[in-house]
Amino acid sequence: MNFRLIGVNHNSAPVEVRERLALAESRLPDACKRLAAHPGVEEGLVLSTCNRVELLVSSNNGSADLRGFIRDYFQVDASDLDRYLYEYREDEAVRHLFRVTSSLDSMVVGEPQILGQVKEAYAVARAVGSVHSQLDTLLTRAFAVAKRVRTETAVGSSAVSVASVAVELAKKIFGSLNGKHVYLVGAGKMSELAARHLLAHGAASIFVANRTHERAVKLASKFNGQAILFEQLYETCDKADIVITSTGAPHAIFRREHAELFLSRRRNRPMFFIDIAVPRDVDPAVNKVDGIFVYDIDDLQQAVSSHVADRKKEAERAEEIVSVEVERFQARLQTLDVVPTIVSLQDHLETIRQAEIDRVRGRLGPLTPDQEMAVEALTRGIVNKIMHTPISTLKTAARESEATTVIDVVRRLFNLQDRKASAKSNAEPGAKR
Fold this sequence. Notes:
It is elongated, with a radius of gyration of 30 Å. The strands form two sheets. A six-stranded parallel sheet has the order 7-6-5-8-9-10. Strands 2-3-1-4 form a four-stranded antiparallel sheet. α2 packs across α6, α6 packs antiparallel against α7 and α8 crosses α9. It is an alpha/beta fold.
């Protein structure tokens, strides 16, 4: 089985590139189905977060044109993205997935959100049937690797988060957060986490606006805050000192004219926008308005990077675990690859044994039970001795890079037809019975 992974992330591409590929949650099922139906793809999963968009697939021959899928599905010129895209195959695709789920490839190394995001993408792909076999095995193992990294290292302890960095930046702007008002635009998990940090450091109140008002009400109730109708966003946003926005809107919802209006209503008291949406909710031009401070997800990454040095040793231990797990996973896959050949060989020789006994039975005449047992033992012993060497060779080869070559040689020597191909052939109209 051939594993392939292609994508962009916060290390390979700036936010203005990532937002061109970002998918709203509602589009993920369709994207997974379309990916699985793409020529050369057997199974497929799409992961889309504020920091990455990745396609993970398995195929029988590795011929899938994933860049072509990106071009067609996202309606972008693939040549514009070439320098930002990374692509991994086989072991390296497995390694990358293990690192992602273990939060070793995150903007904030050790943050826990990415594991939940991969699990959600997995659940969507399973629900639409685009993950069902090899990718299922791979993803299940990736979750186990992430758990092992969390258990055996301290890479996730005291992890600096985007939310905690947002608090630090807000303190630099306002000096103190005591009495400051926070406005959540969008009711996502990251916004909620940032709000909790801000309240814990003295923020006075929370306003919440969301396109689905019921979700705004539910989130506001957690903080004894106030839910605002999304249609009243521009009328009420000037009440906030700090705006955390993450809506999933395809275009910016805050533009320069909005910022100038808010600032005039606030009599030039500063406002701080934390834009964690991809695509971005705040037009970059807003940052040019004096008194308005805007930090997007890439700005937050730069602030985070200064905090992660103390976890370097733990990250190195985690990388060692990932390397070991990649080798184990590949060894397991190679072992699984030889099993069908071993079973086919056993079935093939057993069929010959039974046919030969039936062929000579008439010449042997009536046999006593003891004689029947002797014939059975003799023929089984011969077959087992014939099978011993090829089966031992296959099992040994399963742990080496030559497994595919040995499997092919054994199948050719014993004329072992692919059972799937045989079944398909027999099922075709007009096939001989």
